[in-house]
Amino acid sequence: MYYFTADEHYNHSIAITYNNRPFSSVEEMNETMIENHNSIVTKDDITIHAGDFGFFKSLASAFEVVDRLNGKHIFLKGSHDHWMKRQNNSKSYFHEIWEKRIDNQMIVVCHYAMKTWHCSHYNSWNLHGHSHGHLNPEGKQYDVGVDCNQFHPVSLEEIRIIMDGKPDNFNLIRKDNG
Fold first, then answer.
1. Which domain CATH number covers 72?
2. Most buried in the list 25, 32, 67, 133, measured by CB within 10 Å?
3. What residue numbers bound the domain in which 37 lies?
4. Cα separation of 61 and 65, whole Å?
């Protein structure tokens, strides 16, 4: 199963004040989000983190949190993810966009909301973070950030239900039946 989340801001004390989060400390915020994640994500699930995972000084310190989270993880770079750097001069790096067709539905995930995205004219979905719930979605767009989702990741099944209730993308190509 796939899960989507963004804007966890682990170890980022300013996120508590700036986003009016109901936590008294970074430790409480971190522990609550780890518990919430592990309460629904299993070891076999995949979580796509759409940016701003945390405020870490190094990849090693980030993985102190990652190692406590159930499942496999795909990380997209957000505006605060300075810990995501090339390792050992390799060509591997963290992506900014993740695209995948699942059950014939194209899903495009990025830290930032987009006006148009790959296959948006065919009603593909844009899952994003960054705006912490302060941006009105257009069409098949959804903010998967923790501030919008009770500090939990959102399952693909939940996303399907949400998208079923949303209008078509403004640039949808309609097939003429005439």
1. 3.60.21.10
2. 32
3. 2-164
4. 7
Q: Decide if pLDDT at 52 tops 50.
A: yes
List the end-to-end C-alpha distance of the chain, in Å, as a whole number. Answer: 40
Nearest CA to 52 out of 13, 32, 79 is that of 79
Q: Examine residue 153 and state whether it is found in any structural domain, yes or no.
A: yes
Q: Assess if residue 170 is contained within a domain.
A: no
Q: Tell me the pLDDT tens digit for each residue of 89-133.
A: 444 457 889 999 999 999 999 999 999 999 999 999 999 999 999
Cβ-contact 109, 128 below 8 angstroms:
yes
How many domains, in total, are found in the chain?
1
3-state secondary structure (DSSP) of residue 41: coil
- 112 DSSP 8-state letter: S
Q: In what order do the strands lie in the sheet with 154-155?
A: 72-76, 46-50, 2-5, 154-155
What are the pLDDT digits (tens) for 10-41? 999 999 999 999 999 999 999 999 999 999 99
CB atoms within 10 A of CB 150: 8
